[in-house]
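Justification of resources, computational component.

The compute hours requested in this renewal are based largely on the per-chain cost of generating structure records like the one below. Each record pairs the submitted sequence with a full structure-token output. That output is archived, and it is also reused by downstream analysis tasks.
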Amino acid sequence: MTNSDKIFIEGIGNVFYLKSQKARRIRISVQPHNGICVTIPKGISIISAKNYVVLKKNWISKKVKVLEELKKFADENTTTISDYKKARKILINRLQFLAKKHDFRYSRVTIRNQKTRWGSCSSKNNINLNINLLKLPPKLIDYVLFHELVHTYIKNHSKIFWQDLDKYVGNSKSLDNELKKYRLEYLKTRHDS
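The structure output for this chain reads:
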């Protein structure tokens, strides 16, 4: 084996195997631009690494599926996001609609291209939303909007906060975990490219 090899594995596709002098164990990573990469430490054979990948096939498939969904949502919404005024209007209108329907009060809303947060609510009830929200599935957009609206009267993430949020979105903790799969850095990269 040279510095790297590519092997096709049924059910997951091409897998790139990379030898590393520094690696201490076999490491699998699934990345948007590099695909499935397996780092192999010195002394481990390609056969052993391939067998390990086959054992982890289900885990890899799940990761690949998440990345494919991310790519699909990013591709579908690139046009909307590039028209910042239109995207801004969509988010503001949706927030206003939900607030009016469920009797929430907030001071003002700002739409930004943030690097680390989907949204936030200040102590003065000013709501900030990330323009990249439009790259998410609709249920997650509404989850973030309700999350910030509930913060207008509960300023922490206490048990009461999550219970109140559940009234509007169902299983808020489950949606929060789902949102974590949509890495903001990846969506932002898709937007910038």
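Residues 188-193 have pLDDT under 50 and may be disordered. The chain has two domains: 4-55, 75-192.
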